[in-house]
Amino acid sequence: MYKHIIVAVDDSPTSQRAIEEAAALSAASGARLTVVHAVDEALFAHFNRVTLASRDAVQQALIKEGQSVLESAVAAATAAGTKPESKLLASEHHSTSDQIVQAVVQLGADLLIVGSHGRRGVQRLLLGSVAEKLLKKVSISVMVVRGTV
After folding, report:
1. How much of the chain is in helix, strand and coil states, percent to nearest 5?
2. What is the pTM of this model?
3. Which CATH architecture has domain 4-146?
4. What integer is the mean pLDDT of 123-141?
5. 126 pLDDT exceeds 80?
6. Does 110 have pLDDT greater than 60?
7. Which residues, 6+ apart, have CB-to-CB distance to 108 below 8 Å?
8. Closest by Cα among 9, 15, 8, 19 to 109
9. Mean per-residue pLDDT for 61-76?
């Protein structure tokens, strides 16, 4: 059975479902549960004209929002009967998926749970899929929790 589960969250309803699944599996198996949220500061590379003051303000807002997302996820997992840990991930040099992969390795997880928004077609092409990237990049089991399509 699993010993350490990581659930990666954002502020979507699909992530809420992933938290519910992770908490239930953690409670049933006695596995350690860590909730992570990745702030993708690498997006700033695409904004050449953002002033330093604007950049700092946006970074702080992203971190504050990320902390709020984590607090909500931890509260939901706690209400479901677990004692989760949390970790805010942030990097100017690594994508969201790469940050999560690094956390999986550093924390020694043996199961990763993520939500999938179920985007299709052009929307998926333009936005990419963090869940799909994680499936390709991690060497542990991955549970993909689907949202309503």
Report:
1. 50, 20, 25
2. 0.86
3. 3-Layer(aba) Sandwich (3.40)
4. 75
5. no
6. yes
7. 4
8. 8
9. 94
Q: Where are the domains of the chain?
A: 4-146
Q: Which residues lie closer than 8 Å to 5 by C-beta, 6 or more apart?
A: 22, 25, 26, 31, 32, 33, 34, 109, 110, 111, 112, 113
Residue 18 CA: distances (Å) to CA of 21, 25, 61, 121: 5, 11, 24, 23
Task: Let me know: does 22 contact 110? Beta carbons within 8 Å.
Answer: no
CA-closest candidate to residue 115, choices 41, 27, 37: 37
CB 28, CB 81: distance < 8 Å: no
Mean pLDDT across the stretch 73-81? 96
What is the tens place of the pLDDT at every residue in 6-31?
Answer: 999 998 899 999 999 999 999 999 99
